[in-house]
Write a structure and sequence with these properties.
Elements (H helix, E strand, L loop, with lengths): L3 E6 L17 E2 L2 E2 H11 L7 E5 L3 H7 L6 E4 L6 H7 L1 H4 L4 E6 L7 H14 L3 E6 L9 E5 L2 E9 L6 H4 L4 E9 H9 L14 H8 L4 E5 L12 H21 L3 E2 L6 E2 L4 E2 L4 E2 L4 E3 L3 E2 L4 E2 L4 E3 L2 E2 L4 E2 L4 E3 L2 E2 L4 E2 L4 E2 L4 E2 L4 E9 L2 E2 L4 E9 L1 E3 L4 E2 L4 E3 L9 E3 L4 E2 L4 E3 L2 E3 L4 E2 L4 E2 L8 E2 L11 H8 L6
Parallel strand pairs: 1-4, 1-6, 4-5, 7-11, 12-15, 13-16, 14-17, 15-18, 16-19, 17-20, 18-21, 19-22, 20-23, 21-24, 22-25, 23-26, 24-27, 25-27, 26-28, 27-29, 28-30, 29-31, 30-33, 31-34, 32-35, 33-36, 34-37, 35-38, 37-39
Antiparallel strand pairs: 2-3, 6-10, 7-10, 8-9
Bound molecules: uridine-diphosphate-N-acetylglucosamine and calcium ion (CA).
Length: 467
């Protein structure tokens, strides 16, 4: 097998984005353009150590985005064209047999294309293989030039800016994905000039040079011409975002997930959903969220990095982050789960209940207007409306423990650290500052006094209200 390097060109600013961020760090389909290209390369079977990213504008940001990966950043100090970018990367690929060159702003690139380019170049022992497309609509891409006497031979690429009217009629376009044999590429790059309207080093000019030197250049026609749609401005960013979202939704639907109004649903690329789950309109499943089978996620719910078992019901407009929900539990409407919330099997968390870093045991209920933070709630407990765990003393967080079968009356204030024993009751409106033994009743509020006739007397003596 040929020793292969993969070089992703990502140094350009993308002026038309009108952004301080480099273009490749904008997001479509739930990840950066660069991450989509890297994902295709990895899915094609290349290791991170084989991948280099040419960075220039916003280099530090690109580096930060790849931090932790073994992918090499290849600096291109001045952005003098795609040819210059591949030249800047030369120390990275020169010891390899072949180099795959990709553009970092084309997020629909498939793994099959990346693998196919490398395999085809090897199989044909070609000097270069380049991906081509013939989309129905015109695009201002480089046109593929062939020798009329030998139409199978590619002899060059002419950029849209310099193409003659006749050349502009050529429908075979340069997609911007290549695999070069290293030696002929090095020779062609060494002779590149900047005699063009941009005054840039065009990578595409290496094709004519390679052909003239007797190298074989072959086409790799893309099965789907959409694959080489790049992004130049935010309108195109939105279009490709929509396309990537559509594809993700379609893949899940084909795998047995019902999605109502799929155009309104946002599903990040790594999201998994089990069969017979129903996603209603406007649902967002983000990050590494995994939803089991037979769940129903109702309208407008937003889940980030959550794990839901099977048979979970999330009612409308719930917002869940980094939470775990076990089988048969139901949430919402308007539930908020924050990091570290673990909702046990068959538990019910209702409207305007916030749960953070807390475990709610099997079959327990907190149905209305509560804050449960840093707490452990046992099984079959009932947390009444308006219950607050006072977990924060202004400096430290403290735990609350609520035992199995405990009953916390409405509007209780549990001042942590505090423990409510199994089967205990807390009277409504209590402020609990001390441990409550199992099966006890805790009353922590002022005793009520009634003053008979007080209101009637007041009405007689008070001056009449101004109307
Ligand atoms: C390029 C091709 C064109 C092809 C089209 C497909 C050239 C000269 N033309 O044109 O034939 O049809 O792609 O989209 O290659 N970049 C760098 N450093 C630079 C310049 C660019 O890293 O100095 C990167 C950009 O960040 C971008 C990629 O190279 O990711 C492509 O550059 P771009 O300027 O968009 O090339 P096109 O004009 O689209
Ligand atoms: Ca482009």
């Amino acid at each position: 097998m040929s020793k292969t390097a993969v070089v992703i060109l990502a140094a350009g600013r993308g002026t038309r984005m009108r952004s301080q961020q480099p273009k490749v760090l904008h997001q479509a389909g739930g990840r950066t353009l660069l991450a989509s290209v890297v994902a295709a390369v990895r899915a094609a079977g290349f290791a991170e150590g084989q991948i280099g990213v040419v960075a220039g504008y916003g280099l530090a940001a690109v580096q930060a985005c790849l931090s932790g990966a073994a992918i090499r950043i290849l600096p291109q100090e001045r952005q003098q064209g795609t040819g210059d970018a591949v030249l800047a990367a030369q120390p990275f690929w020169s010891a390899c047999d072949q180099v795959v060159v990709l553009h970092g702003d084309m997020p629909l690139l498939s793994a099959a294309t990346v693998a196919g380019l490398a395999q085809q170049r090897e199989a044909l022992a070609a000097a270069a293989v380049l991906a081509t497309a013939a989309p129905a609509e015109p695009r201002a891409y480089g046109r593929i030039l062939r020798d009329p006497a030998r139409p199978e031979a590619i002899v060059g690429i002419v950029e849209d800016r310099v193409a003659t009217a006749e050349q502009k009629r050529i429908r075979e376009l340069n997609a911007g994905f290549y695999c070069f044999a290293a030696a002929p590429l090095a020779a062609a790059l060494a002779r590149l000039g900047t005699d063009n309207p941009h005054g840039e080093y065009y990578l595409t000019d290496t094709i004519a040079a390679i052909a003239q030197a007797g190298g074989r250049v072959a086409a790799f026609p893309l099965a789907d011409p959409q694959e080489c749609l790049g992004i130049n401005d935010r309108v195109e960013l939105a279009q490709l975002d929509q396309e990537l979202r559509r594809r993700k939704a379609e893949a899940l639907m084909r795998a047995g997930v019902t999605i109502q109004l799929p155009g309104t649903v946002i599903l990040d690329p790594d999201v998994e959903v089990g069969a017979d789950t129903i996603l209603e309109a406007g649902v967002q499943l983000l990050g590494a969220t995994r939803v089991g089978a037979h769940c129903r996620i109702r309208a407008g719910a937003i889940l980030s990095d959550c794990r839901l078992a099977d048979h979970v019901l999330v009612r409308p407009y719930s917002v869940l982050e980094s939470a775990v929900v076990e089988s048969g539990a139901s949430l919402g409407p308007f539930t908020r789960l924050r990091e570290g919330a673990v909702i046990g099997p068959d538990a019910h968390i209702g409207n305007f209940v916030e749960v953070k870093k807390s475990r709610i045991g099997a079959g327990s209920k907190a149905n209305h207007l509560a804050y449960i933070g840093d707490a452990t709630v046992g099984a079959k407990a009932n947390v009444g409306a308006g219950t607050i765990t006072c977990n924060y003393d202004g400096v430290h967080k403290h735990p609350t423990v609520i035992g199995d079968g405990a009953f916390i009356g409405s509007n209780a204030t549990l001042v942590a650290p505090v423990e409510i024993g199994d089967g205990a009751y807390v009277a409504a409106g209590s402020v609990v500052t001390e441990a409550v033994p199992g099966d006890a009743l805790a009353l922590g509020r002022a005793r009520q006094t009634n003053k008979p006739g007080w209101a009637a007397r007041r009405r007689q003596t008070a001056p009449p209200a101004k109307s």
